[in-house]
Amino acid sequence: MSTVKAAVLTAYEQPLELREYPALREVAPGEALVRVEIAGICGTDVHLWLGQLHVPLPVILGHETVGRLEAIGEGLTHDWRGNPLAVGDRVSWASSIVCGECYYCRVKRQPTRCTSRKAYGISYCADTAPHLRGGYAQQIHLRAGTAIFRLPDSLPSDAVVGAGCALATAIHGIERSPVEWGDTVIVQGTGPVGLAAIAVAKQAGATKILAIGGPPHRLELARQFGASETIDIGAVSDPAERHKIALAFTGGFGADVVIECVGYPGAVNEGIELPRDGGRFLILGQYANAGNISFNPHTITRKQLAVQGSWGFEPRHVDRALRLLEIPHWQQLFAGEITARFPLEQANEALRTVKNWSAGKTVLIP
Length: 366
Ligand SMILES: [Zn+2]
Ligand SMILES: [Zn+2]
Description:
This protein is α/β, with parallel strands linked by helices and 366 residues long. The chain has helices at residues 43-49, 103-107, 157-176, 192-204, 216-225, 239-249, 266-271, 298-303, 315-325, 328-336, 347-355; strands at 3-9, 17-22, 32-40, 59-60, 65-72, 90-93, 96-97, 118-119, 139-142, 148-150, 184-188, 208-213, 229-232, 255-260, 275-283, 306-309, 338-342, 361-364. It has 2 domains: 3-164 and 313-364, Alpha-Beta Complex (Quinone Oxidoreductase, Chain A, domain 1), CATH 3.90.180.10; 178-309, Rossmann fold (3-Layer(aba) Sandwich). The longest helix is centred in the middle third of the chain and has 20 residues, at 157-176.
């Protein structure tokens, strides 16, 4: 094959364009070439498409990817965990690379806030060689320093992409705002991040989990993932009514941990009322800047809340996500999230299913 196809975002709110790029054959030391097998569509891709996060256009989207190594550069002998790497290995990788040297990387140990952090499928202009730096393509070029993970044969690609960036995001968030054994947890939102938060909370030992979200097919998934109860925001549209149900669920006091995975600013107003006094509120869903809300800060003082934000994840969270996916129960649930598969040529239809919440997890098969 002398060219490879890619679905490219060339202008916000416009259909992705199918473009061809020269196929890559050779790599410099430390780099790798991967033949893409499956690429997940993340909610962030919809935000990017709609222009809610500014990126260098044109860009090949896609930051949840599994493929097979086609070429590995000199010196790239092992994956991030120390497993030997060879051409033909099935791999995934952490979607972003940080510098390791800036104030946040080195001094303050907040590498997700690295001042020169770059993410595949987000930060690389497709007009610049080697062009292929996103998952919505038949081939992807990985920079030296990418945290590559060789996937064990027992771990299906569907589980890895079904979990996508949501699982590592939830693991990072819950590391910052821990769920302890026996905790009661409320998860706002039943999209991929909400379901992943339910899984991580459950695995961490939460004994009761309430999921607030919709539509009904997502709530059914939430119950399969471990929610003991759900509130359908379509059926219970009054936030005051939802608050009453949530309080009753937690024995009248509120939850130990509330995790916002919605992405709409208004959800923060509702969520901040739901922890018990001295409880924790993790705001995980506001990745795109969707605007301001007003709220009463007295609630935070009076309830002695720990309010926590969390942005992205590090390779060590990908490592833990893959470990969680080796547990058959979670493997099946995350793989089962995938309900729609499209070829690259139908990337626009695929994006629309994510925008309209009409499928579970949607993937491209380049
Ligand atoms: Zn994502
Ligand atoms: Zn840095």
